[in-house]
From TrEMBL:
One of its GO terms (molecular function) is ATP hydrolysis activity. Pfam families: ABC_tran. Keywords: ATP-binding, Nucleotide-binding, Repeat, Transport. This is ABC transporter ATP-binding protein. Residues 10-251, 264-508 form the ABC transporter domain.
Amino acid sequence: MGPELTRPVLRVSGLSKRFGGTQALRDVDLEVAPGEIHALIGPNGSGKSTLIKILAGYHHADPGAVAELDGEPFDLGQVTASRHDRLRFVHQELGLVGELSATDNLALSRGFARTAFGNIRWPEMERRTTALVERFGLGIDVRRPLSGASPVQRAVVAIAAALQGWEGRHGVLVLDEPTAVLPPGEVSRLFDIVREIRDAGAGVLYVSHRMDEIFALADRVTVIRGGRRIATRPVAGLTPRSLAELMAGEEVESDHRPRASAPGSAEAVLEVRDLWAGPLRGVGFALARGERLGITGLVGSGHEIVPYAVCGARTGPVRGRLRLPERSARWVDVRDAGRLGLPLVPADRAGEGVIGDFSVGENLTLPLLERLRTRAGRLRRRRESALAEEWIERVGVRTAGPGARITKLSGGNQQKVVMARCLAQRPEVLALCEPTAGVDIATRLQLYDLIGRQADEGMGVIVSSSDTQDLLALCTRVLVVRDGRIAREISGGEITEPALVHAMEGTSVT
């Protein structure tokens, strides 16, 4: 079902927003039709997040903007009960309270079911919550605090909270990067639910950096760049290349694949044996110099634990052995892996990758401070600044300078800082977990090139990702983990999306 040619359910025109000397949005027009999935796409820093926050009432628009819901004007910056009921949001920052259960979190947005005496009807609340989250097919204990839930489970709870009471309603559901941590199986379930919402007559505004999602799901797409609306087009009339060119403002190569695999004679830079951690059951592998090794699997398979374990960043019980043959013939207990100094690009950039109170330069040079100190222990500030500037330029971070606060950067630029911090240590092995989650297409391609150059120069690279696009673009060999063990190894030209998905699911390709 495509968009109806009727009055738009949401119309915004002349939307501008300035923050001090920065013009975040300039005269942006946007329309979402009833029964339409409308994608919103653009590079990091293009103004997408600002637009969403204005719709949600977090920011006020500059004077002159006009907005309508079902033909009724509403103030961009004031949240009324009627508007809240017709405009629903799932933000990148999920807005959940980790100390509370899924049941409590859903009740915070829609209220508690109570008896005539005001007592909460807990069995009814739990039944409602269970019914909502079970649509995604994930086992979630709706009574336990979300602090112990996985990122995927928390994302499902946030989506379920927004979907409460939406059956048959007329309005707009805004989804901002809803699949950033979801593997293929859960993505398809989410897509089915989004289509149900559309088919019931609601409009869906879908913000994503993943081009494959746009073509799989959306009816129309609006591209914004530099705070301006560049184009609104039917998706059926676009190709991945033409959409990428609209985003980047220039010709880009959207079909990014590794040029070559590591030579078969390349020596191993890392060997791992008998790794046990969480669901992992005796995993072992070798990583060759210049190799880009992918590790993937479904949620709960344990693939995401591997980079944390080999870098000594795993919290929780772990056992196994590893060694760096070019350094020593000795095997090291994986519990002591932190002493080897292998850097990690973590999955949770905001929670694990950056320190929000620190500057760009301080985040970048944090693991190098001992090298930057005098014999008396004083920090050589000029050397620190010069090193930060060098790596900011080398990885292409868009920032006012090393002194800028890291939280002022877009997600993609923060990810580049985390990458630069790891690369500045000049390691033999680089481990990455979900390296392109929440970054735009242009930045994704830049990260692919950056990672590829490191491998070409002889660095061994481990990429743990649930994003098949990452695996296709980056990896020369992929290990698929299922039920805690390596179930399949896929190499070279055999690395295709169907092969990866079937290997993860444990189904036949034919």
